[in-house]
From TrEMBL:
Signal peptide: none annotated. Residues 631-766 form the Hemerythrin-like domain. Residues 122-222 form the P-type ATPase A domain. Belongs to the cation transport ATPase (P-type) (TC 3.A.3) family. Type IB subfamily. SUPFAM superfamilies: Calcium ATPase, transduction domain A, Calcium ATPase, transmembrane domain M, HAD-like. It holds the Pfam family Hemerythrin. It is a multi-pass membrane protein. It is found in: Cell membrane. The keyword rRNA processing does not apply. This is Heavy metal translocating P-type ATPase.
Amino acid sequence: MATVPSSDAWRRRRERVFLAVTLGAFAAGGIAWLLGWQPVAEACWVAGTLAAVVPSLAWVVAALRRGRAGVDLLAVIALLGTLAVHEFLAGALIAVMVATGQALDSAAERRASRDLRALLEHAPRSARRRTGETAEVVPLAEVVVDDLLVVGPGEVVPVDGRVERADAVLDESVLTGEPLLVERNVGEPVRSGVVNAGSAFELRATAIAEDSTYAGIVRLAQAAGAESAPVVRLADRYAAWFLPLALAVAGLAWLASGSVVRAVAVLVVATPCPLLLAAPVAIVSGLSRASRIGVVVRSGGALENLGRARTLLMDKTGTLTIGRPSVVEVAVAPGRDPAEVLRLAAAAEQLSPHVLAEAIVTEARRRRIDLPMPEEVGEQPGRGVMATVDGRLVEVGKRAVPAESGWVRSVIDRARLDGGAVAWTAIDGELAGAVVLRDPLRRDASRTIRRLRSAGLDRVVMLTGDRAEPAREVGTVLGLDEVRANQTPADKVGAVRAERDRATTVMVGDGINDAPALAAADVGVAMGARGATASSEAADVVLTTDRLDRVADAMEIARRARRIAVQSASVGTALSLVAMAIAAGGWLPPAVGALLQEGIDVAVILNALRALGRGRGTAPTLTGEADVLAHRFAGEHDRLTDVFGLLRRAASLLVTRPGPEALDALHRAHAFLTEQLLPHERAEESELYPALADSLGGPETTATMSRMHAEIERLADRLATHLEVADSTGRLEPSQVEDVLATLYGLNAVLQLHFVQEEENYFALASDVPQEGRTR
């Protein structure tokens, strides 16, 4: 059976035929003219002109039906004018210009939109479902939640799910734009649309195909393709005044000279005009560039609005923070080991569906702690988990705690000040420790805010339903212009509308409660990496990767695309106006004017295609060795956070009980510094920083961090000297206590700042480092 060509294939064929006919007629006429066959030459040129009149008339009629009279009308008038005044060569040249302009425009649009089309072509159609020992290929629509699927090498993950039995190596570049492979361990979530780059693995479905991540992205890409009309809004605004101006200049030239040839010459250089080509190509190129980095923009209109935005409103939870709890400290009772307390707590929590339990288990796995399976597991809703682990009774959750205990009071105060939650851990009925959790800032939050301001935003406001205290802390750290806490969805909508009255406004959010505010903004941006949600459906822009810095990337791409569109249209129009003036004076014949206008059109199209490039203002990215090392040292940071608890505990004991117990705590802290933290810092100095210097432009980019390393080592040596004196006498002298406290406080402050700076300045640039930056 013969296949039916697609509409795009028919369009390409028509374009090729159109271009071949006009070029052939022009060339044949030229050959006939050289041979002295003037009538034949004129007949060929007339045929080429008429071949262009028919499609041009169709474009004009279609535009008029949509209520628009664009610059295509000038092309028709110019073509008919050349026939009327017998400027047949000029008519043939205009015909070639119209045909080549259409071909260039379509080729540029195809090149610019190929990334959006690739999303649709990449969508899986079936899945391999395992039942017992057999696996069968089934249509994707038949996959249901909890099905066990097998994903073979090179196959696309069909639905959202969790890895079962064997770890998976994945290529997530379709969703994230990052080329490096990512390893997902057993139990970790995997999003649909990513490619299996390793051996076959099993996937437990957690969503049906329609509700999975990639299906939502495909719907967005389809919407972006369907809503192409706003792309030409910029061109329409220019054409609104250019069309009557061109007709007026042509009319005046005719009246002043009495020569209709001059009027035709004016119309020739005024059409088809860069307005018709430059703005759409630049905007579509910007859409394509955004899609490459995991940003799906629904329409050219949304990209234009994003490019001229001045105010940014942002939700807190899930947008500026990671949106789920993360362990920030494991505090323990005197004599207990933090790693052991975390191991037992995480082991007991393995079977619990609670969000805090998942965070504790994730932290243990991040630290590469082996977790035994618990026995006799029981869970009381709202209270916690009780289980037997390695023969010991472990209880994790809420419980009555001895408020008179110094370390307990410290944990309670910390949680209250930081807006965190506490999971108390008891072993065999004795309180052994506490896991402190909170929703931390993203590692890339500060850098993103700075980049957004440099991109032209005048005002950045946070809208959150959270309490005022933690909201103010986030606002202070990020340097926001205003923080509004305790906001309901209705309050957020009101705030968006108030800001819209002052300037073009962008709203960024991730939750269902943000959907009304996203819809109310000039541009709504959804953090949609965790699946299709109401916020994604209401947004104009969706980030398919869980990185806040993509907001800044999208803003920079939008501003650059809009700037190039305006530049191309303005320069092309200015050149056309100059040519019109020359033609009106009688110094530019129609045929020469047609050649000149063709050159102008080609130049502005090529300039508009620059929007496909990165641009000079794009944020740097780490590649090669620097990217690999950033992954490694970011993971080590997460495993070194126990140092803060050790330093605080030693300082607390020095103040309350400066005896053997305090000395033991100091030895524990010093051992951690010398055995784990300082080797980490020295490895950074010798391995990471040279690689960063190569990627970021020289050793000065890491100079301040190297100075921090020196200060950390100096303070560690100072603590070691105090411990040598104390060991020689068997106790800390009263004269030492004040300086030891200052050393501990200094270490805590310097390490806090140093970790945050490295995470924001370096690790946030890596391809797929998790964004769980810590607010310690």
